[in-house]
Amino acid sequence: MTDRPDDLLLAQSNQALLQHGDTPQGAHWPNAADRRTRFDVMLDVIAAHSEPVVLCDLGCGTGELLAHIRERGLQNIRYVGVDRSAVALALARAKFPEASFIELDVNAADANLDPIACDYLIANGLFTVKWDLSQQQMMDFLDATLTRIWPQVREGLAFNVMSKVVDWERDDLFHVPMDDIARMLHALAGRRIRFRADYGLYEYTAYAYRTDPTPFRSAIPETPLIASAAPEKVPVLRPLLPRSEKLQPYLRRIDATRIYSNYGPLVMEFEHRLTRHFGLPAGGLVSASSGTAGLVGAILASAARASTARPYALLPAYTFVATAVAIEQCGYRAWLADIDADSWTLDPQRLLAHPQLDRIGVVIPVAPFGRPVPQEPWLAFREKTGIPVVIDGAAGFEGIAEDPGRYLGEIPVMMSFHATKSFATGEGGCVASTNIDLAARTTQALNFGFYSARDSRCASTNGKMSEYHAAVGLAELDGWAAKYAAFRAVADAYRRQLADAGIAGRFLAAPDISSSYALYRCESTTQAQRAQDSLRENSVEFRLWYGAGLQHQSYFADNDHGDLRVTEAIAPCVLGLPMAADLTEPMIARVVSALHSGLAADS
Ligand SMILES: *Cc1c(COP(=O)(O)O)cnc(C)c1O
Fold first, then answer.
1. CA gap 357, 387 in Å, rounded
2. How far apart are CA 551 and CA 349, in angstroms?
3. What would the pLDDT profile of 98-144 be if each residue is shown by its tens digit?
4. Residue nearest atom 10 in ligand 1 by C-alpha distance
5. Which residue CA neighbors atom 14 of ligand 1 most closely?
6. What whole-number distance in Å separates Cα of residue 580 and Cα of residue 591?
7. Res 224: pLDDT
8. What is the pLDDT of residues 29-44, one digit of tens each?
9. Taking 90 as the threshold, does the pLDDT of residue 239 lie above it?
10. Cβ-Cβ contacts under 8 Å for 104 (sequence gap 6 or more)
11. pLDDT tens digits for 320-329?
């Protein structure tokens, strides 16, 4: 052993662990409750989003942070524990055999730091105890460690030290002025740093970020540690797909045939049943691995890839990002157009006067929240301009089936079967068209450009649906009548309760839009803000499904667009309220009451 300060810290922490075992004291914490508070404050470094993030727990010890993460049900965290102590890691691995724990000395000259590359890094208690080290040695250790790990951190990091603003300091603890830490972090992250000292302990937590941080969620754990009267959250969406028993017969068929993809028997049966469901000619419905993949296939089949003469695809600013993502995959640049105030989608009549019409290679009208787009005006548009049209009818499953003659035709229509859509296979989608050649070209574009021969003959991707997803789709079709009826009953219950509260006028749900949405159109952004505050206060989740428009999504912010005043006015006012096929009357009552008090506060 050398005389590096790190070595002394390691030896001391091993000794504490051996003496007290896998307890808070074994990690030098006085008690379990304070340790949980620290975990929560540290976890606040992670911005509130549901996408998976990699979290590195530096100085993870016996992996208690992971236990806490599981207890809180934070499912989007991909955890990596890092420590130098083999003793602690052995205990951690015994508790969590499937998790990653890495033995690594990050300050060793030859350390390979690749394994700690992460979105967020937390170091809880690594810099709070200095034992016999001098203040300067400890500062050097902190500085050296931060400088080494920062390049591996993509979003932000958090660590704690002891406060100087205390009645008395302990000699063995590391009390540091905030200014000293601020100076150190400033060298790494500029002004994107913050401190928290509001959680009742004799320490503070320092945070550093790569980009401007979002507001803290809360140090208060969402799952109360002690039983409390806090009401259960009403989730904005709780998908309900066929239960495993319903999948069994189909899965057994997969076992028997050993065909797992490439248009196997289940995908063929699923396509066939959907073809009949929509009254299409044989071959008019093509399955896809997702709605987005379906759009890519339909665009490639109808318009091919972007050309220098026609580099743009025209789409409404008010849609889910998938529409723009798909056109980019086909080489186009998005041209965002405003929506019509009544239909909430593109107006073909108005587009005829678009200044860049001769530079547009494809137009993608979107069925807003599943309200289907009629074929007829777009056929006329296509006729007049010669520009191919593909309809993003992602959430249109029910609406389209109500009147296939009006909503399906020569122009291909994509539908999504994502878990959040009413008819769902988990991931999945389809393209429907009465033009069989076009449908065949879509299949080809979704299968490496192969069609009847193993020769790649056109621009393509791999967007095939697997047999497993088709199994879910077949089971979903078996139960669809019942699921749809359940959705409709929830929509009707909403209407009834909203009418009783005198606020039904601005509510939108099935059958006017897809049954997976319950929307409330507020009169103004101020009113929407108040309604949102009230929903939040009453633990009712909500969502702006299409955000504030694509022009506000970072990646698409500098795309060309025309005047977007209708999108700007409508988008922030359309609140997505909780919806699920099994949403109960009492849950609906809580939503309605929260909404009502938010709207009442307006007058
Ligand atoms: C859901 C949705 C999509 C994307 O479908 P995926 O199946 O998730 O790829 C595309 N456009 C709109 C309007 C959607 O709502």
1. 9
2. 23
3. 999 999 999 999 999 998 999 999 999 999 999 999 999 999 999 99
4. 322
5. 394
6. 13
7. 42
8. 888 888 889 999 999 9
9. yes
10. 82, 83, 84, 111, 113, 115, 116
11. 999 999 999 9
Q: Do residues 314 and 364 lie in contact, with contact meaning Cβ atoms separated by under 8 Å?
A: yes
Could you tell me the CA-to-CA distances from 176 to 188, 222, 303, 579 in Å, in that order? 18, 31, 63, 50
The CA 296 to ligand 1 mean position distance, Å, reads: 12
- Report the atom number in ligand 1 closest to the C-alpha of 319: 13
Residue 320 Cα to ligand 1 middle (Å): 7
pLDDT: which is higher, 398 or 16: 398
Phi, psi of 152 (to 5 degrees): -90, -10
Higher pLDDT, 225 or 377: 377
**Residue 210: both structure tokens together:** 């790569």
β-pairing, 312-316 vs 518-521, is: unpaired
Of 114, 121, 105, 196, whose CA–CA distance to 155 is shortest? 121
Q: Give the Å distance between the CA of 295 and the centre of ligand 1.
A: 9
State which of 241, 392, 514 you would mutate to test the pocket of ligand 1, scoring each by most atoms of that ligand within 8 A of its C-beta.
Answer: 392
Residues pairing with 129 in the sheet: 173
CA of 415 to the centre of ligand 1 (A): 8
Name the closest-CA residue to atom 2, ligand 1.
394
Query: Can you give the pLDDT at residue 449?
Result: 95
Which of 384, 382, 429, 447 shows the shortest CA–CA distance to 409? 382
Characterize the bridge pairing of strands 100-103 and 77-83.
parallel
Contact 420, 237 (CB under 8 A): yes
Cα of 291 to ligand 1 centre, how many Å? 5
Closest CA to 164 of 145, 179, 182, 142: 179
Structure confidence at residue 225 as a pLDDT band (50, 70, 90): very low
User: Distance between alpha carbon 510 and the CA centroid of its chain, in Å?
Assistant: 24
| Ligand 1: nearest atom to the Cα of 421 | 1
Q: Percentage of the chain surpassing pLDDT 70?
A: 96
Residue-wise pLDDT for 270-289, tens only, equals 999 999 999 999 999 999 99
Q: Are 11 and 17 in contact (CB under 8 A)?
A: no
| Residues 448 and 455 sit within 8 Å (Cβ to Cβ) | no
For strands 333-337 and 360-363, give the pairing.
unpaired
Ligand 1 atom closest to Cα of 322? 10
Helix or strand (DSSP H, E) at 265? helix 265-277
Identify the pLDDT of residue 28. 77
Residue 329's Cα: distance from chain center in Å? 20
> 505 CA to middle of ligand 1, Å?
28
Residues with a CB atom less than 6 Å from ligand 1: 290-292, 319-320, 322-323, 366, 392, 394-395, 416, 418, 429
**Spatial distance between the Cα atoms of 596 and 601, rounded to a whole number of angstroms:** 9
Whose CA is closest to atom 7 on ligand 1? Answer: 291
Ligand 1 centre distance from Cα of residue 580 (Å): 18
Locate all alpha helices (DSSP H) within 150-243, ordered by sequence: 178-189
> Residue 376 C-alpha to ligand 1 middle, in angstroms?
23
